[in-house]
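Problem: given the chain below (565 residues), write out its structure.
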Amino acid sequence: MKRNVTAIGFGLALLIFAVFTVSSYLSMAELTTIGKLRSRAFSAIERLGSLSAQIASAEIDKNNYIITGEEDYLVPYYDGALRTVDGELEGLGKLFADKPDQQQRLDILEPLIRKRFANFRESIELRKKSGLNAVVQSGLITEGREIHNAVNDVINRMFKEEEASLAHLGFLTMENAKGLMSKQLLGTLLSFTILYGIFYMLNREMHERKRAEEALQKANKDLSSYVNELEQRNREIELLSEMDSLLQASATFEEAHTVIAKFVQDIFSKESGAVYLLNEPKNTLESIVSWGDIKPGEQVMGTDECWALRLGRIHQVDATRPEVICPHIKHALDAAYLCVPMMAQNETIGLLHLLFDSNWFSYSEEVRKHIIENKRRLALTVAESIALLLANFRLREILYSQSIHDSLTGLFNRRHMEQLLERELHRISRKGYPLGIIMLDIDHFKRFNDTFGHEAGDMLLRELGACLQRGIREEDFACRYGGEEFVIILPETSLENTRQRAEQLRKEAGHTTIIYRGKSLDAITVSMGVAAFPEHGTTADELLRAADTALYRAKEEGRDRVVAL
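Solution.
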């Protein structure tokens, strides 16, 4: 009887073992299938992220070329993005072969990408042929932004579809794991009542399964972390691209500084930091924006207070190592920081400073290394982009200033004077205000040139220009009309007040002293003609003719005087 019970027990144990073995095998097979599906979804997400990054990288290289015209920016564009994108599209086609919805989105995405790169090519060719302004005026930038938004929309939808698939597969994995554990536990309990040895074997198998589940959970956590990192990188690339577009469209330095302040904080929202720009006259760097834990005393620094500026390259410091800390760091360092010089054409534009949070040492050394390497690459890209755009902006300002000023005296030139006069006449005519015009000429300037030479004559013109600039109000305009003739525009000034101002300027000009080659030259005199709106005319030509007539009369009457018609 006992043998029969034992045999039945062993038989039952074997039956239970067989049943649960088969069930476990089926569950594991299903987990394997789910794992393959998860791996495919992960590959799809990775390829989508790479595709987005390559398109963004190609756009940055294209933008840098259009801004600077430097062919070196096209090397990574042709060798990197153009080749990689085709491979990523082909890989996505294989992954989505049995997913009709994703395949349909891919069919929409591929022509959009081709169209985007066609836009890149048109912009590059137009830049090569006609220059930067032709690209800006062509409408290609606006068209490119619309295609860019369409591409991002399709990629985001595909990305969300794969995320949803991953979430569903993760749920199935957990449900299968729970079912598998339940089966194993029940089989273990039943087997324990029959045979301790069978229990031991099943118990050991249960522990093996538990370790497998923990490994699976860790893999799932790592995958989620990687997906989050990809999303963060895509966001950073989008912000950088938008910042570049807005900086190119900025009309003033103040607008450019506002754009930089907003986007740099958004890009580096998890760190503290500041953006400094060089103030050349003071030889200092002053922050245009700071955020986080940057102290008030750290918002202005000398150019010699940062190792990155001294060395001309990025300076990285971690409080766990005894590196040299920059003098502009006034507080005790309890984390890590980066200083990235912003340079363009071998000139220092400013500095990007990033300070990591005080939880820095709660991360493992491997995680810290990963974070700082990613931030280092991003900071270099941001600093280079800002420096190039600001250098280009500064060049445009210099060229504009040169186009409206006389190179010898620094006063407004004749062409710009005519524009100013037309603008002021339009403004004051609407408001009913007067406007005064002074036209002056240096008496016997030809004789002065013949006596002392043209170099002394140029010096006289410069000194007189400086004298006129000092003697007018901030809202007045001093201009060189041509040769030794000058014009002063006095908005909202009556004829009598204009005449009085002219008399003061005549006296001040007479006191102008020219020291040439160590010798004080003869004093000069000037003749002045005065006209006013509306007494002598309502147009620029009429006022200038009236002032010129008055100047001619002043010379006829003996020079060194002011005449008003």
